[in-house]
Design a protein that fits this description.
Structural class: alpha+beta
Number of helices: 6
Number of strands: 19
Strand content: 35-45%
Largest sheet: 12 strands, antiparallel
Shape: globular
Oligomer: single chain
Number of domains: 2
Helix content: 10-25%
Length: 400
Amino acid sequence: MKNVCATFFVLFYCATYAQAIAVQAVIKDAVTKEAIGSASVGIKDSPKGTITNEEGAFQLTAPKNGIIQISYLGYKLLAIPASEFTSETKTILLEQNDEILEEVMVTKMPLYQILRDVVSVSRARFNKPILLHTYYREFVKSNNRYTKFSDGLLDYHISGTTKKTKSDLSIQQNRSVLLGSDEDEDETTSFLNVQRGIANGYDLSHLSENILSEKQYGNYDFELKSKKDKTGNERFAISFEPKSAVEKALYQGTITYDPITKLIYEIDISMAPSHQQYASTTNLWIAKFSVLDSKYKASYKMVNSNYIMYYNNRYFKMRIWTKKLDYTDESRSDLIVTDFEKDDLKYTKKDLYTKKHLYDKPSQFTDKFWQKNNAIVLTNEEQKIINSLENRAAETPKKQ
């Protein structure tokens, strides 16, 4: 009987997704008609999802009888039957929530302590172990010239404790385009470790180490605001900025969270322009380097009973110089969780990718995965960059 039931379930599942359709659309503000980037797009009662790019575009594979849900902070949730989508790119207009009421809040407890509590609750709510299926991509440039691009379908095996996340990485498919003909391009590297692509978002180390530690929180001014629409939906936002008298390279940013559950939903942190001038120089035996800029964004959501990080964006800019060379490297990565499941932890070390950079792995793919699997749609500008890199790489003589 069990075998019959199992067979029926498999047939039902396959029949459902045999009718899967490709959904593609562009999301815009209903009034201004401006594109809405980083909007969350998912399938009702499913962990599968994606986000819109800077041009508001997204692509998603969904069952024909599924419901596409689109959400963005400050806008009304929109649900559209997948059957309403065709092969044409659909334009979707999102309406802003009715009158947002914003209020500055005054509390007896210091705001850094409230934020510490929010970080603690969010850390404890993550389900572990969990297997996160992701699409990851990274651009690297040196002296304002793009030199590397890589993307892939990456699986992150998340385990560990509440305070310390362990993240093991395996790669399903990937492509890498890089140049290496000139001496300075050989030195170009990324300071974004692909191994930490997920772990930082689960450790929340950007907050606990750079903002909320005993040595750091006194350098910042904090402010708490409440945002509520007419339907009663409410979010709290704690913003912080460095005190003007502190002469250190510090951060500014905003953390948005639910005041009831105390779960974080948005993190937006960047090096404060007013304090970039205080960036220190580190001396190594072969070179000197200084961090010029750093940015980090992450988005979280609840899917059924699972609280997950579903998107992050990292940006890092650094100057490196020696007696012979002086150049600036910039790296930007985007990662989106396209699906997830409970991890059985049955993988072995040989299944894992252990290098720091995805572009160190030669391209290996069986289909155009970047056009499928709910990957983040490339903007026109990003596609031009990749095309340029591919053309330059094809023209570059191979080293003997």
